[in-house]
Write a structure and sequence with these properties.
Blueprint (H helix, E strand, L loop, with lengths): L6 H7 L27 E8 L2 E10 L8 E5 L10 H9 L3 E5 L17 H14 L6 E5 L1 H12 L6 E5 L7 H4 L6 H8 L4 H12 L9 H12 L3 H17 L13 E6 L13 H4 L5 H11 L4 E5 L6 H4 L1 H15 L2
Parallel strand pairs: 3-4, 3-5, 5-6, 6-7, 7-8
Antiparallel strand pairs: 1-2, 2-4
Helix pairs in contact: 1-13, 2-13, 3-4, 6-9, 8-9
Length: 337
Amino acid sequence: MIQISFRVLSAMLCSAALLGPAVGPALGDAYLADLPYPYDVARVELRSQGQDLWMSYMDIAPEAPNGRTVVLLHGKNFCGATWESVIGALSGAGYRVVVPDQIGFCRSAKPRAYQYSLHQLAANTHALIEKLGIEKPIILGHSMGGMLGIRYALMYPDQTAALVLVNPIGLEDWKAKGVPLVTVDELYAREKKTSAETIKKYQQNVYYHGNWRPEYDRWVEMLASMYAGKGGDIVAWSQALTSDMVLSQPVIYEVDKLRVPTLMLIGMKDTTAIGRDRAAPDVAKTLGNYAALAPQVAAQIKGSQLVTFPELGHSPQVEDPARFNAALIQSLGALLQ
């Protein structure tokens, strides 16, 4: 495990962490039409599973390019906009940054009938990268985006410069450990009950280890607005389908097959475990122990680097942007040497 002092870099990158206009309260729309993203949003048209769909994305050019591109993959309860501070830091360090919203999420298409799989989302992402003419990007994924990043790197190893995982879910197989699967209908019924209150309670308990700060509220409002606004039903349905995806498509059994330079950035107070509430109490208390899981998984990935944040949780890039961004820039530079 790498232990790094980030005091100097933190000071240098503190302002970069706050680049871009703030994302304000959303008014309510399934596609976040009323919510300004921190950078201009474009879209690419995709033909997928017999349907004409679109994938929204941000593409940020640095002022002083270093010749490399980072593709940021958001988590299940996140959107491309949530990468705001990381985009600023990476762009300031010379990286071109591409930030898609996956099909089924945020500003992208939400088809009613779609076979969601990590393989499909990776193929969609690869199609976007090809359309933008990018060769060998760095794939950086957080939460569900980390699962997706692993699948992407397994599918396209020769076209991936490096893989960066930020508190990825799927470091354990929840089903194998005792979390029962449920039907999509059951998942949908639960998603229909989603509100700002339920989102905040979950994130406070699981992501931020019991703590809360006012700056987190805008990301709660962003998510809640999609459920509460026009088209909220398709948001709940898409979330149910993608919940089934992450529960039934583990990647942990294949991490030892990764053959690209890999960096893990882990908030060690994270306790995320999808479906924990359905497991028996004695099982539930063993799940989502990132302090134990992260070193175990890092040891399975040949040549991987692990950087830990002992006092941070599931979203270190949100909880402490300056410190996270400093660690990311320094560690990424070392990884690519």
